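Why should sequence recovery work at all? Because a backbone constrains its sequence more than one might expect. Tight turns favour small or flexible residues, buried strands favour hydrophobic ones, and helices have their own preferences. The token representation captures these environments compactly. In the example below, the structure is given first.
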């Protein structure tokens, strides 16, 4: 792992130039639908195409999880990896390992999957991670501000560009169905009233190779003040995409470990509401913050 993080196609800024060898080994995973076909049309240093190694079976993955005494399994597969995500969710269930779902394939927020995790006695946190200070959390906070200040939100869009493999993968629009739902519902959930579908556009927009891991978000919000007087807000946000979600991912691991240690099972609602775009139960960010702080500090099950 200490070597792999510096190898292409990883392209984020180097903020820790010396990483000690911890013994963690990068191993071949099960591909299924985890790699978009159009990746083959791009240079090798820009893609994560498999190197021809044999793929593990479900039994192999479960055995590896048990042998390593894994507490938490993180799913950070490319957007649109429905089959691959379900494969690893099955592995987590069989191995009894807490599952954190960072991508917009709906597992924790799907009642059927949620019931399976609950019956198996396995905690799960998901779905679709919110970055530390990313497009979705900023859009939500501003939407909530409109609501609290009595400004009617009439129309809004969120456009994003980036040059990492996440954006390259999302250039295949067929893989974005759940991603658009997740990002859109995260904003709709805090609006004073639901915005008509034709008046809201939230989602990935385009792949720009030279941006590398830098993600640029453009927000526009059109509203009405007192007396129906129009106003609009435009914002440009530039962040380094990978470290922007890394700290949140670490906190999700910690909460999943807490849930596992406490013997909780099924979706853990407070951390999901605070850390994820499409949790089983949506809350405002103020409510979610208080709920997750209570979950961590008081030792009580999530609300």
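From this structural description, the recovered sequence reads:
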């Amino acid at each position: 792992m200490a070597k792999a993080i510096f190898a292409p196609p990883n392209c984020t800024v180097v903020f820790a130039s010396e990483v000690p060898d911890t013994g963690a080994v990068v191993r071949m995973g099960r591909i299924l639908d985890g790699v978009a076909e159009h990746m083959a049309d791009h240079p090798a240093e820009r893609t994560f195409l498999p190197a021809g190694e044999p793929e593990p079976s479900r039994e192999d993955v479960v055995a590896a999880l048990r042998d390593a005494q894994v507490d938490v399994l993180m799913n950070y597969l490319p957007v649109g990896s429905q089959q691959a995500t379900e494969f690893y969710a099955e592995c987590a269930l069989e191995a009894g390992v807490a599952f954190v779902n960072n991508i917009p394939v709906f597992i924790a927020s799907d009642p059927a999957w949620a019931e399976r995790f609950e019956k198996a006695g396995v905690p799960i946190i998901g779905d679709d991670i919110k970055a530390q200070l990313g497009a979705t959390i900023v859009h939500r906070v501003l939407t909530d501000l409109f609501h609290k200040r009595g400004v009617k939100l009439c129309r809004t869009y969120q456009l994003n560009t980036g040059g990492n493999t996440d954006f390259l993968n999302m250039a295949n629009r067929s893989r974005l169905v759940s991603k658009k739902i997740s990002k859109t519902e995260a904003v709709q959930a805090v609006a004073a009233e639901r915005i008509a579908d034709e008046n809201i556009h939230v989602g990935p927009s385009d792949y720009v190779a030279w941006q590398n891991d830098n993600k640029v978000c453009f927000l526009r919000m059109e509203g009405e003040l007192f007396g129906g007087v129009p106003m609009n807000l435009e914002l440009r946000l530039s962040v380094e995409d990978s470290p922007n979600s890394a700290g949140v991912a670490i906190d999700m691991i910690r909460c999943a470990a807490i849930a596992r240690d406490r013997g909780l099972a099924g979706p853990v609602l407070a951390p999901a509401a605070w850390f994820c775009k499409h949790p089983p139960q949506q809350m405002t960010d103020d409510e979610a913050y208080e709920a997750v702080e209570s979950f961590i500090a008081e030792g009580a099950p999530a609300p």
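A few observations help interpret the result. The mean pLDDT is 94.
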